[in-house]
Specification:
Blueprint (H helix, E strand, L loop, with lengths): L2 E5 L2 E4 L4 E8 L7 E7 L6 E7 L5 E3 L7 E6 L4 E6 L8 E8 L12 E2 L3 E6 L1
Parallel strand pairs: 2-11
Antiparallel strand pairs: 1-3, 3-8, 4-5, 4-9, 5-6, 7-8, 9-10, 9-11
Length: 123
């Protein structure tokens, strides 16, 4: 059974940092693309960042580029999202996802999803 479990969310002041972690289990993910998405109240879920597990190629949404960094540890089956210079508009539930379907930026590109972790940035 595939499981993606996120951790590391919390409350932080604007300008601060948080590091999210996603532990993947239940299958071999070497051929998968791992992504982070977020959903703010009343808004659609949106792409944040992704990484191609086996080769380390990364993608970022324009709104987080230069502030967030996605990384993977193949030995531990973890994917982290380092978030710096956080803004109140980064407040959302953050989801880890894994997929091989076309569409790096699209929800449909990912077959497996975690339960999410709340990130709240106060002004």
């Amino acid at each position: 059974q595939v499981q993606l479990v996120e951790s590391g969310g919390g409350l932080v002041q604007a300008g601060g940092s948080l590091r999210l972690s996603c532990v993947a289990s239940g299958r071999t993910f070497s051929s998968y693309r791992m992504g982070w998405f977020r959903q703010a109240p009343g808004k659609e879920r949106e792409f944040v960042a992704a990484i191609r597990w086996s080769v380390g190629i990364t993608w970022y949404a324009g709104s987080v580029k230069g502030r967030f960094t996605i990384s993977s540890d193949n030995a531990k089956n973890t994917v982290d999202l380092q978030m710096n210079s956080l803004k109140p508009e980064d407040t959302a539930v953050y989801y880890c996802a894994a997929g091989r379907s076309p569409g790096v930026l699209d929800l449909g590109g990912y077959e497996y999803w975690g339960q999410g972790t709340q990130v709240t940035v106060s002004s």
